[in-house]
Amino acid sequence: MSKDSVQDGLVVSMDYKLTVDGEVLDSSDDAGPLQFLVGYGNIIPGLEKEMMGMKIGDSKDVVVAPEDGYGEFDDEAFMDVPRADFPADIEIEEGAELHITADDGSHQMAFVESFDDTTVHLDFNHPLAGAELHFSVKVVALREPTAEELDHGHAHEEGHDHE
């Protein structure tokens, strides 16, 4: 198997720009190329699938439908939680991102939709749920992963210290 194109088990470095509804929401311009380990769920499935087979220097515009991105918006993914269930030192404000531990020990991300003195209304949808994602991507490097990266299931940035 040739290692000169995007495929499972390789680390890809890519420049990217994400646009939703004509607004640029994210890009690699400031932080430099994004690295990810192909086949390990490190990026949204619709984008990873469209990048398969690309070679270093290849550019592509990709449109990812909600079901292949962050999912459809779920009108049922809301919950009212008593304000008293939150630690007193946590400042609650609309739009705040909270990391919630469910009763089964799983972790979920939620956003404060609204609140009053007694109740906090949480939204468990990803902020981009239901959005059509427009990516401009360019493959800038491909490499074999290290044993540690394979063990951890994600790429490590150069100089990144994992314990």
Layout of secondary structure:
Elements: E1 11-20, E2 23-27, E3 34-37, H1 45-51, E4 59-64, E5 78-82, E6 97-101, E7 107-115, E8 119-123, E9 133-143, H2 147-152
Description:
- 8% of the residues lie in helices and 37% in strands.
- It has 163 residues and is mainly beta.
- It has two domains: 85 residues, Chitinase A, domain 3 (Roll), CATH 3.10.50; 46 residues, Thrombin, subunit H, CATH 2.40.10.330.
- The strands form two sheets. Strands 1, 2, 3, 4 and 9 form a five-stranded antiparallel beta sheet that branches. It has a four-stranded antiparallel beta sheet with strand order 5-8-7-6, with no helix packed on it.
- The chain starts with 10 loop residues before the first strand and ends in an 11-residue tail after the last helix.
- The C terminus is likely disordered.
Structural class: mainly beta
* CATH second-level architecture of the largest domain: Roll
- Low-confidence runs (pLDDT<50, min 5 residues)? 159-163
Major β-sheet annotation = 5 strands, antiparallel
> How many E-type strands?
9
- Mean pLDDT, all residues: 91
DSSP helical segment count: 2
The percentage helix is under 10%
CATH classification class of the largest domain: Alpha Beta
